[in-house]
């Protein structure tokens, strides 16, 4: 399951979890975001030891600004408040590899 983060406080709470956190930064108008969305959903069901969230960069622009989002989709992996990986673009293979490596 993928949860929406609607505020900067929700974002900070999420990234400080003591497990792997995958955040999908997207925009409603972003074509590649829509293309990769079903894959991200599948990964959320496959990798049950990770928490999956999404952030609409237009609705929660302060989060996008804080982490320096420049393109969508961007995926960031966090553990205990530290960013451990960033993937820019709709690249499901790279995202799957990053999640697998983070959980290993």
Automatic annotation (TrEMBL):
Pfam families: Thioredoxin. It comes from the Eukaryota. The record marks 24 as: Deprotonates C-terminal active site Cys. GO terms for molecular function: protein-disulfide reductase activity. Residues 1-104 form the Thioredoxin domain. Disulfide bonds join 30-33. The record marks 31-32 as: Contributes to redox potential value. The active site is at residues 30, 33. The keyword Disulfide bond applies. Keywords: Disulfide bond, Redox-active center. Belongs to the thioredoxin family. This is Thioredoxin. It comes from Lipomyces tetrasporus.
């Amino acid at each position: 399951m993928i949860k929406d983060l609607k505020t900067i406080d929700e974002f900070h709470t999420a990234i400080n979890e003591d497990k792997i956190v995958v955040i999908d930064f997207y925009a409603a108008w972003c074509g590649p975001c829509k293309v990769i969305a079903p894959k991200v959903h599948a990964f959320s069901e496959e990798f049950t030891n990770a928490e999956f969230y999404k952030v609409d960069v237009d609705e929660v622009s302060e989060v996008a600004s804080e982490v320096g989002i420049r393109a969508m989709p961007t995926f960031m992996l966090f553990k205990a408040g530290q960013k451990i990986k960033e993937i820019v673009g709709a690249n499901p293979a790279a995202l799957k590899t990053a999640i697998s490596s983070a959980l290993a």
